[in-house]
Amino acid sequence: MNQPAKSGKIPELMMGVKNRASLSACKDYADGVYFSVDRFSLRARACDITLDDLNSFVTDVKEQDMNAYLTLNTVIYPDDLPELDEVIDAVASSDVDAVIAWDPAVITKAVDAGLRVHISTQANVSNWQTVNFYASLGASRVVLARELSLEQIKDIRQNTDTELEVFIHGAMCQAISGRCYLSAYILGKSGNCGECSQPCRWGWKLVGEDGSEVDIEGKYLLSARDLCMIEHIPELIDAGVDAFKVEGRLRDTRYTSTVSRCYREALDAYREGTYTQEKAASWKEEMASVFNRGFSTGFYFGVPGPDGMAIERDMNISVIKRQAVGVVTNYYRKQGAAEVKLLETSLEVGDDILIEGKNTYLEQKVKEIRNDDGPVQNAKPGDVVGLAIEGKVRENDRVYKLEVPA
């Protein structure tokens, strides 16, 4: 059954991006993107955007009529303060719409520089008085703790005028608001400084105090399912939050494209009064075809139980896998073709492929393959062939085949 058309405010849809390729993947669907430069980010591996490149990247975001939010949400140590000043100065001279932070050093420096500040979920804001406290420091928006229920979010909304943002999709962390020390303790790689090695996704042994070991049959005891709220869009909008946030800056561009499109369609359907649970189930199925660890509703409807854990598999359970094919060695714009060297696996006409690089995102079917003798039906590893291409690609872009494993 369709919902009646809505005239109220639709929350801003924010996607995490790591480079221009992922920006391109969501440009037709998201209202804003959050990203990091090569320092002070909880996603240190997402470092394709450097401080020197900040102005250029933000310009690209603005050209797509999107908002640009920079994350500066790591722990700040004494030795970091001079470099933090350098970053704040660079951000202040850019068109960044806000910085996402929780460390008071970042908050005060950003506010003093005249920047808008959004409080990161790392601050674990869980009540309206804390929201108003951060607002008194100059924050214009607060990203609420992921451990809140929908009813608690409604209570916060009723008691503050500050903008509120919530996560609606993506990886869930075992630790409260991601404040985890497991990676730092085991490997010396601090999750709070952007180097989390995700030991919660490992296989663990359960050992008693007497040294006896419990057989857990290869289960992953600490690995949480991904959050997915596509089936609860009306409840989330009615709660009155201002922005919906999707986690996944380190995931591939196909994830970014598919998830942003599904949530955009869901939000538009709600506005138009055409949102249904049947459509929501279809969108959820589409998102299950890209990287995921299984889905749950997190803490929105209560503390997660066993159904919130991905105990059978540690990582991606998507039915569609990316199989590496080869690399682009040349691009011929006038001919609409790319020269590709096949390195890992074969390719044939009709295959679904993805071409990806720091600045490239292109998904299409293989319509034509050519070698020195003309059109061919397939090619094997070691071959160098020409592919008909439906968009611009670049030398050294990687080519992947999308397939359902047998």
UniProtKB/TrEMBL annotation:
Pfam family of the protein (one): Peptidase_U32
SUPFAM superfamilies on file: Translation proteins (SSF50447)
Transmembrane segments: none
UniProt keyword NADP, yes or no: no
Record has Ubl conjugation as a keyword: no
GO molecular-function term, one example from the UniProt record: peptidase activity
Signal peptide: none
Keyword vocabulary terms for this entry: Hydrolase, Protease
Alphabetical GO biological process terms: proteolysis
Family statement: Belongs to the peptidase U32 family.
The protein's name: Peptidase U32
Species for this entry: Methanococcoides methylutens
